[in-house]
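Reopening this one. Same input as before:
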Amino acid sequence: MKLVVVTAGLTQPSSTRLLADRLTAAVTRRLEAGAPAGALAGPLDGPSPEVDVRVVELRDLAVDIANAFVTGFPNGRLRAIVEAVTEADGLIAVTPIFSGSYSGLFKSFFDVLDNTALTGKPVLIAATGGTARHSLALEHALRPLFAYLRAVVVPTAVYAASEDWGGGRDAFTDGLGERVDRAAGELADLLRHRAPHREEPEDTPETVVPFEQQLAALRQARQ
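Same output, byte for byte:
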């Protein structure tokens, strides 16, 4: 099973990459542990799948992405990443929040993808920011973006503000760890029960009956 993690953090170390790593570890742990007791049977039930994780740091691809917009096509390195995302069974996408929305680098990368690259693909969306006030950017910016790309986005989106890294919680809000685990479980369930890819049947060539034969058959039917 191929899982691609796209992270748009700009600094090193990056809280965006840290959140991506926590989500990846949680999803991998859920998949390799197998289906929970009482779960419905699905196409991937049985032996736990081996998870092949590929992490994509968009910071390292910034120049390649810009050149793709100028030249009209991605270079070899960016093309390999695009193919990896397209062929992945699932995707984790994490961005920092700037001015109440995803970063320009994050959006530019997904603009490079073909419009059908994420069709039907399970996606977990997440973001980091300095304040919890920007958490709704996941719902008004990221979720519509992936809905437009026809991806299947898990119900729980994970936002980590600066204060979340202490692991605290109050009476009204789940802690970051709980949100990570819940979102990871949702993505793992989608991946585990995702229908296997089937080749589309080839179109049967249409038989064209010459007009003369159609006219002759019509005359014979009237007699």
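So the earlier flakiness isn't reproducible anymore. For the record, The longest strand covers residues 90-98.
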